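Worked example 2:
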Amino acid sequence: MREINGNQNNLSFPKVEIKKDVPQSVEITEQEGELKKPVTEDLSLSPEAVIGRSQVQMTDKASVAKNVEADMKAMLENPKAIQKAADFFDIAYARLQENGSEDAYEKAAVLTNAFKEDFLN
């Protein structure tokens, strides 16, 4: 733009207005500010907690490695069954997502486990 005006040394900047009136912060009353605290249920009654607890308690690295080795051995011995289960999971997960299921991944995992129990054992 400086070249258009014929003076290359002339710099002009648009005027910027700075607002000095900053809105005051709104005070939050005690009732509005209260958050509901999540209720902790008795985890000993939950099957998921029992599974999680068993996984956390398994701190012996040798037993963890042994379990992983056993899983890998089973997968290497049955690659077709593993592929069928993986394909079933993918299909179930896609269908559940299409239908708008909130926890599609978890439901697909449960369905895949049932598929494995019924058809692959």
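Residues 78-121 form one domain. The chain has a mean pLDDT of 75.
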